[in-house]
Specification:
mainly alpha
């Protein structure tokens, strides 16, 4: 049954079937082959999404769409540019800092690339940057969306492995996200020196700094409001997502005054479409994982790995290799739903910190979105930037190597993931 499951899934992916439907189709074929009643498929599809915590997903998506409609991208761009725009490769640094700020609102790599990323690519091109380089930098930085809180991937991870502390895992993404942003900035600086990408020549006065910072404050408050409210116990993650929606509506309509009522139908439609995509993936992945569970794959794999008597560090490096390969072909959300229930209990039994392991899994699978040849984020950015995919990939390699270095640091030093949550009492 398992062989049929994986062969059918690989075959469907090879024919270009979307990941969600490849997982669902493979599950259906395996059930027919095994003679399992087909009524079980819709049952596990719906049970996979019939979870209270998943209610946070559509609200976080809607909050990000509302903030984007409320001039958020332009405000954050001006705010970031005043600090790093004058340095060598300043527009590239502005891109990184803007997307880092925006990732604290969107929770989605694709939203970052298609929204503020598209604006930054256009501005970098106008400033003399190679279009393929601008697209590569945007792709590499957009992976911060699922890492820096609030993160849809973190919510799905906590559902796949309920023993992990959701709030702690949210906070655990802050330092790794900042490290990746710093690594992207270092690569951008080196390449900018080599290619003579200069910074902005326009000098800002002190009142420009005050005005730009004042305008950006409402946008910067949202991530703090979400994390602070959850950490203080004022509201749950699901309630925080609803608070984020009302705050985003208030900021766009009252504070920035750029969010028009006529924009709401299209914003709601985009949010509904993205929510449906996420939930379809989660539901299909849950059915796929159910077949694995029925076939006792998690138990057999656990016994096999435990029988190898791997040291915790050796296990983590083996998991890194597995996930980097797995992430090339599978999107992060189905990867989390399928693999985490198998791997996380093993990591816990080996004494590996749950928060460290969670961040390693999320960073690994998110990097798969920009790993050739299948990375979904590459296709989105290529279309947005209007550059050939091959040219984008050639410019991407230095950023991928830098991210691998950060991943190695996260593997070797648990404190980078678990230190900040432990400081706030989350373990």
């Amino acid at each position: 049954m398992v062989t049929v499951l994986f062969v059918a899934c690989i075959a469907l992916l090879a024919f270009g079937v979307p990941v969600a439907f490849a997982l669902g189709g493979a599950t259906l074929v395996a059930m027919i082959f095994q003679g399992v009643p087909l009524v079980a498929l819709p049952k596990y599809l719906f049970s996979g999404i019939d979870l209270f915590a998943l209610e946070a997903v559509p609200f976080f998506i809607l909050a990000a769409e509302l903030m984007t409609g409320g001039e958020l991208s332009a405000v954050l761009l001006r705010f970031a540019s005043q600090f790093v725009g004058r340095f060598r490769g300043g527009m590239g640094h502005t891109n990184i800092l803007t997307l880092t700020f925006f990732s604290g609102i969107s929770g989605s790599a694709l939203a970052d690339a298609a929204g503020p990323g598209a604006i930054m690519i256009r501005m970098m091109r106008e400033d003399g940057y190679a279009p393929a380089y601008a697209a590569a930098l945007t792709s590499a930085t957009s992976i911060l969306g699922p890492i820096i809180p609030p993160s849809i991937s973190v919510i799905i991870y906590a559902l796949a492995y309920p023993d992990v502390n959701l709030v702690g895992l949210f906070i655990a993404g802050v330092v790794p996200g900042v490290l990746i942003a710093i690594a992207m900035g270092a690569i951008n600086h080196v390449i900018s020196v080599r290619r003579n990408y200069r910074g902005a020549v326009q000098a800002l006065r002190w009142n420009d700094y005050v005005r730009n910072t004042w305008r950006a404050l409402p946008a910067l408050v949202l991530p703090t409001l979400i994390l602070g409210g959850i950490a203080s116990g004022a509201f749950t993650p699901t309630e925080a997502s609803v608070v984020a929606v009302f705050y985003a509506l208030f900021a766009g309509r009252v504070l920035y005054r750029t969010l028009e009522w006529r924009m709401l139908p299209s914003i709601l439609a985009r949010s509904a479409l993205m929510t449906a995509s996420v939930l379809i993936i989660v539901g299909m992945s849950a059915a796929f994982a159910w077949v694995l569970t029925v076939s006792r794959i998690p138990q057999h794999l656990t016994e096999w790995i435990v029988g190898m008597h791997l040291a915790p560090l050796a296990f983590l490096f083996a998991v890194n290799v597995l996930l980097l390969i797995f992430g090339i072909f599978i999107e992060p959300l189905p990867g989390i739903v399928v693999l985490v229930p198998i791997l996380a209990p093993i990591a816990h039994a080996l004494g590996i910190d749950d928060l460290q392991f969670g961040i390693i899994v999320i960073v690994n699978l998110t990097m798969g979105m920009i790993t050739p040849p299948v990375g979904g984020l590459l296709f989105v950015t290529s279309i947005v930037a209007r550059v050939p995919l091959a040219a984008l990939v050639r410019e991407l390699w230095p950023f991928l190597w830098a991210q691998l270095v950060v991943l190695a640091l996260l593997t070797l030093f648990p404190v980078l993931s678990s230190g900040l949550p432990n400081l706030f009492g989350y373990r």
